[in-house]
Every structure is written in C-alpha cells, then in structure tokens.
C-alpha cells in the first residue's frame, strides 16, 4: 500500500484540499490544528466517543466533527486521510479509502512534512517510553530547544503547528510506522523486537519486525541508526534490510564491534570523546535499563553533547509512573507498580530486574500471549501468582507446574490484600500484568492507580 504525495492534485474541486481525520484523540486533534494552519479544509470522524476535552478543542477550532459513527460518503470526499494508530489497516473505512485511492497516512507522517527540526525517533517492543523520556531529559539539560511527542506527551502535529523546536524526540509505535512513507528519522533507535500486538500482524513475528524496521526507511548516510546488538530478532532483520545510515550498535554481552558496551561495571560509549559511567550511578537500575541508558547515551554522543551533561542527566533522571514505580515498603515488603507492562516481554524484564523473591500480580486481557518465555524466570524468582482479571485460565495452564500458589482475584484491592498475606519480609509484591487492562479497568493507568491506593490502605 504505497501512497504518493500528490494529494493536492487529486481533488476534483478547486478549493482547499480536503483533509479527513479518523480518530478524535490527542493525535487526531493535533492533526486538525496543523491541517488548518496549512490551509486544508478539515473534517474529523470517530467511530467511538470523543472526550469532552477534545470535542471542546474541536469546537474552538471550528472543525466539523462526528462521533460514534463514520459517514462514509463524507469521508470518501477526502484528498488525504490521517488515521489514528489505534485503527487497523483492515478497518472497513480504511479499506474503502484505499479502494478509492485516497492516501491514508499517520499524524507523524503528516507533521513530518511541515517541520525542518531534527527528529530522534525511538521504537522497540519494550523500553521505548523510558528511553524517549531519558533522551528528552538529556537534550533538554544540554540546553537544546527540544519537543517531546509521538506515543507520549502532546501530539507532534499540534507542536509543529504551534511551537518552533529545533529537535523532537519521538516515541514511535509499530502502528504509527505502518502509516509512514516519506517520513525520515535523523536519528533512529530500535531497542528490541519481541512478540507484541501480533494480532495486528497476522500472528507473524517477521511482519511485526519488518514494521519496526520502517524506523530506518528513507535514511541516508548522513543519518544514524542505533540498535541493540544482543537482540536476535533485530540481528535477523539486519540481514534482510538494507540500512543506509551510520550504524551504532550497543551490547552488554560483548565489548568489540559495538559503540556502547559494559566493562568492569561501567557503561562505555566510544564515540567522539569516549564516555564512561559506573552503572551504580545510573538513575535507572536493572539490566533492561542498561540498554535504555546506552541507547540514550549514544544519541547524546551523536549530537556531541558534553560528557558532564550526559553523566548528570543519567544520574538524576526520574522515570514514569506505572513503569517499575516503587510505591511503598510495608512490613519489610516492597510494592512495585509496573502496570504499563502489557506484554509478556515487559513482565519478563520486570521480574528479571528485581533481586528478591516475588509475589507477582498479573492478568487481564490476553493479546495472544506466549508465556513460555517467562517460565524460567518465574520458576527462579516467583513464589506465588495473584491473577487479576476476568479469565485467568491461560495463566494457570502456563505456570501451574512452576509456581506452588496461583490465586484468582477480581479487583486491585483484593489482589493487594491476597499478595500481602502471601509475601514475607524481604519479598517484593510486583504488579506487572503482561496483559491489557480493559476487562476490569479503564486503562493501564487506572489499574496502576487502583493498585497504588490499595497498597496505601494496607
């Protein structure tokens, strides 16, 4: 599905080109702002509800919109369609648009056409939010004029319409990449590729991996590609994709042939003026975070930021809520909220990074999870599993031979109370669900917030 950029001329009327936006969330409303600024006639359509905040913004902008339906006749008048990353390519409205030869692109693709800022784009199955925030923190601390957007923060398009940044740090999901064609990352970061969202990729890891590799599309020798040399799926992709950008691999398993590596418990980055930092001084602890810190550090070195600034930023960074967030220590038991872990790999990372015995709270809406990869680490570290979800059958089946106690619960309060009784002094109670939250909660934030308030009530 290759979309040309000749949308201005496909119009059969002489007025402004007609932009239709599918999805009335942060990215959709941002795209509407930029569309207006660029002289498009704009219409927004959402098959679901549009929140009060966004419908008020659309009214203020005088953008006509509809919710709880898609009026096909109106949508198919478009010269260009921007779709929310949450809408799959197989949705009826998208198939109709493609059939009508209307280009369908992402908000990121659209915004990229109207900014000359340098774009640092970060993708990966796990760790991308943390790495994006750390990279943004590094650049900001170095005094660069930088915006934060993509899967996080305010919409990229809205910022291109209203701000004037020299750099953007963008967290990019595979769903966004699928609708990007001419967009180019000046610095592309690929952290890892592990099975996630396979329901959107015909249950094929190769298709999902190829989607992630679109982060390198359109790059030239003047650009940079930063990737993990320890990630088997990434290495497989490098065999079947031609990368034009300069490559900067990082590793914690080897010290040769890579830009960043681990030596004597120090992170070493050999680029320009070499950088060294003890891993004990890093704000982000745990093996998976060494990778995140290395990736951000290489971005900083490519941009030739001062070692002192990098060291300071990596030492004082504060991570996101709901991502391995320490909630409290009660009766010698640590409570950690990792509600953002909505896939098996993220939960594997969380368990792997905790040195104590664990009572694991997991479960929810299973996106076709393969729990096999968790079996070893669960056997080693998890003493009990507290299921938090409506249907926990697959968790029981996966771990009944590895864990002595598996209990079902149906609310955050119940889960926390059961976990409290199963844990002893020195243990960690970890909420790291490996599943989406929609069966019992509004979203993963709501799940994490309910967990935190239940812990504080103990």
TrEMBL record:
<keyword id="KW-0132">Cell division</keyword>
<dbReference type="InterPro" id="IPR013221">
    <property type="entry name" value="Mur_ligase_cen"/>
</dbReference>
<comment type="similarity">
    <text>Belongs to the MurCDEF family.</text>
</comment>
<dbReference type="Pfam" id="PF02875">
    <property type="entry name" value="Mur_ligase_C"/>
</dbReference>
<feature type="binding site">
    <location>
        <begin position="124"/>
        <end position="130"/>
    </location>
    <ligand>
        <name>ATP</name>
    </ligand>
</feature>
<keyword id="KW-0133">Cell shape</keyword>
<keyword id="KW-0067">ATP-binding</keyword>
<keyword id="KW-0963">Cytoplasm</keyword>
<dbReference type="InterPro" id="IPR005762">
    <property type="entry name" value="MurD"/>
</dbReference>
<dbReference type="InterPro" id="IPR036565">
    <property type="entry name" value="Mur-like_cat_sf"/>
</dbReference>
<keyword id="KW-0131">Cell cycle</keyword>
<protein>
    <recommendedName>
        <fullName>UDP-N-acetylmuramoylalanine--D-glutamate ligase</fullName>
        <ecNumber>6.3.2.9</ecNumber>
    </recommendedName>
</protein>
<feature type="domain" description="Mur ligase central">
    <location>
        <begin position="122"/>
        <end position="299"/>
    </location>
</feature>
<dbReference type="Pfam" id="PF08245">
    <property type="entry name" value="Mur_ligase_M"/>
</dbReference>
<keyword id="KW-0573">Peptidoglycan synthesis</keyword>
<comment type="function">
    <text>Cell wall formation. Catalyzes the addition of glutamate to the nucleotide precursor UDP-N-acetylmuramoyl-L-alanine (UMA).</text>
</comment>
<dbReference type="InterPro" id="IPR036615">
    <property type="entry name" value="Mur_ligase_C_dom_sf"/>
</dbReference>
<dbReference type="InterPro" id="IPR004101">
    <property type="entry name" value="Mur_ligase_C"/>
</dbReference>
<dbReference type="Pfam" id="PF21799">
    <property type="entry name" value="MurD-like_N"/>
</dbReference>
<feature type="domain" description="Mur ligase C-terminal">
    <location>
        <begin position="322"/>
        <end position="435"/>
    </location>
</feature>
<keyword id="KW-0547">Nucleotide-binding</keyword>
<keyword id="KW-0961">Cell wall biogenesis/degradation</keyword>
<keyword id="KW-0436">Ligase</keyword>
<comment type="pathway">
    <text>Cell wall biogenesis; peptidoglycan biosynthesis.</text>
</comment>
<dbReference type="GO" id="GO:0008764">
    <property type="term" value="F:UDP-N-acetylmuramoylalanine-D-glutamate ligase activity"/>
</dbReference>
């Amino acid at each position: 599905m290759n979309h040309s950029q000749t949308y201005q001329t496909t119009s059969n009327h002489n007025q402004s080109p007609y932009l239709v936006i599918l999805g009335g969330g942060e990215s959709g409303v941002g795209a509407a702002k930029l569309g207006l600024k660029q002289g498009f006639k704009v219409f927004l359509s959402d098959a679901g509800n549009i929140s009060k905040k966004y419908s008020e913004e659309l009214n203020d902008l005088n953008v006509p919109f509809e919710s709880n339906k898609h009026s096909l006749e109106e949508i198919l008048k478009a010269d260009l369609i921007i779709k929310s990353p949450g809408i799959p390519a197989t949705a009826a409205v998208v198939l109709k648009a493609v059939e009508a030869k209307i280009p369908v692109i992402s908000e990121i693709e659209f915004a990229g056409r109207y900014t000359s800022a340098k774009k640092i784009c970060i993708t990966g199955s796990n760790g991308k939010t943390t790495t994006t925030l750390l990279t943004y923190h590094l650049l900001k601390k170095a005094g660069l004029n930088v915006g934060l957007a993509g899967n996080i923060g305010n919409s990229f398009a809205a910022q291109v319409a209203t701000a004037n940044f020299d750099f953007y740090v963008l967290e990019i999901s595979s769903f966004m990449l699928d609708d990007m064609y001419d967009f180019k990352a000046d610095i592309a970061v690929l952290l890892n590729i592990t099975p996630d969202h396979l329901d959107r990729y015909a249950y094929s890891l190769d298709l999902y991996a190829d989607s992630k590799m679109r982060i390198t599309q359109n790059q030239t020798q003047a650009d940079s590609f930063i990737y993990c040399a320890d990630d088997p799926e990434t290495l497989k992709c490098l065999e079947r994709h031609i990368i034009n950008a300069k490559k900067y691999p990082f590793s914690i398993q080897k010290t040769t042939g890579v830009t960043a590596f681990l030596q004597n418990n120090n992170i070493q980055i050999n680029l320009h003026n070499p950088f060294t930092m003890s891993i004990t001084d890093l704000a982000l602890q745990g093996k998976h975070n060494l990778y995140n810190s290395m990736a951000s550090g290489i971005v900083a070195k490519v941009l030739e930021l001062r070692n002192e600034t990098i060291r300071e930023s990596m030492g004082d960074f504060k991570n996101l809520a709901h991502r391995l967030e320490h909630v409290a220590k009660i009766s010698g038991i640590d409570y950690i909220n990792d509600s953002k872990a909505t896939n098996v790999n993220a939960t594997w990372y969380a368990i792997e990074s905790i040195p104590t015995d664990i009572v694991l709270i997991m479960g929810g809406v299973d996106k076709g999870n393969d729990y096999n990869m968790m079996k070893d680490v669960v056997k080693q570290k998890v003493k009990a599993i507290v299921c938090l979800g409506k249907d926990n059958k697959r968790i029981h089946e996966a771990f009944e031979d590895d864990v002595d106690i598996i209990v079902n619960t149906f609310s955050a309060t119940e889960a926390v109370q059961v976990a409290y009784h199963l844990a002893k002094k020195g243990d960690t109670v970890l909420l790291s669900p490996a599943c989406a939250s929609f069966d019992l909660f509004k979203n993963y934030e709501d799940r994490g917030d309910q967990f935190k308030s239940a812990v504080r009530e103990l």
